[in-house]
Every structure is written in structure tokens, then in C-alpha cells.
Write a structure and sequence with these properties.
This protein has 171 residues and is of the alpha+beta class. It has a single domain, classed as Protein Transport Mog1p, Chain A (3-Layer(aba) Sandwich), CATH 3.40.1000. It has 2 helices and 6 strands. Strands 1, 2, 3, 4, 5 and 6 form a 6-stranded antiparallel β-sheet that branches. Helix 1 packs across helix 2. It starts with 8 loop residues before the first strand and ends with a helix. The N terminus is likely disordered.
Amino acid sequence: MGYVPSGSKLLIWNELYKRGAKPGLKNLAYTYEGKNPEKIIHFLPKLVRLVFNPSTWQQKEINVGEGKYDSSWYLFRDLDSYTYFRVDIELSVKYKDGKGSAKIKLGEPVIITEYPQETLWQKSFFYEILRMFWHNYFYNKRLVSHLDWGRLQVSCFEEKLLHYFEQLNNE
């Protein structure tokens, strides 16, 4: 076994849509064209907080100009002591005189499981065998429920967002 630096972790990525309703889906994109797209700039953070209830919310980038707004975030939600939900959200809005367009993109929603490998015991072969046994025979049931939760949250987000798009067009 090679050198493993202190603070290292074993990461297991589980894509929400690897199997099931939308196989192979990596990015979800929603577009809006019509009245008052600038209202989406204030609505989207509220919707994200309401639906995903993130533990951590990191703004990656923001660009604001006349009639233009672009931003992107990393969103994390702790599900248990080993697992968290992650999704990247991008918002791009262009508007002029009360009309314009908006594009919202959810980049690869995933459930990530982290196992620390910091101590000598955690780096040992015997520990890895026990961890794999525990993960495969006990934790996988919990992981399936986390994946179902993630799909439900993304569907809820999609439904509320599309409903808001209709509401903006009817104003």
C-alpha cells in the first residue's frame, strides 16, 4: 500500500439519474422567455433554500451587467455522517424593458459518501474489508433511500420552477 496523506478520504459518487427515470442524465436545464425574467434572480435562491435546505451554499461566480446577470453556486446538503447531496446550480438572465430570457442549469446532482482514511487503522487492509462488508450489506439500503430523496427533491424543484415560469408569463 502506498503513502496516503493525512486528511484523505474515500469518496463514492452515486449519480441520481444513473439508473431509473432519466438514465444517463447529467445536467438538467430549464429555460424561460417572456415577461420579468429579472424576478427569477431573487426567486431562485429562495426556491433552492425551500426545496433543498442546504447545509452549505458556496457562490462560485457572479457577473452582473446592464441587462445581464450570471451566477453559479455549489450546493451541499448533509444527509448523515457519511453522506451528502451535491448539485451545481447556474443562472443566466438577460433582460431589457421587462422582457428577456433566463436559463437555469442543475449540473449533475449526486449523492456522495465519504469514508475517512486518516489513521493507521483506517488505512489498513482489515479495516477496508470490514468497511466494504458494512457498506454492501447494511449501508446500501440507506443509500437507496438517499437517492430516492434526491430524485424527489429535484422533481419538486423542477415542478415549482416551471409553475413560477407560468406565473411570470401570466402577470
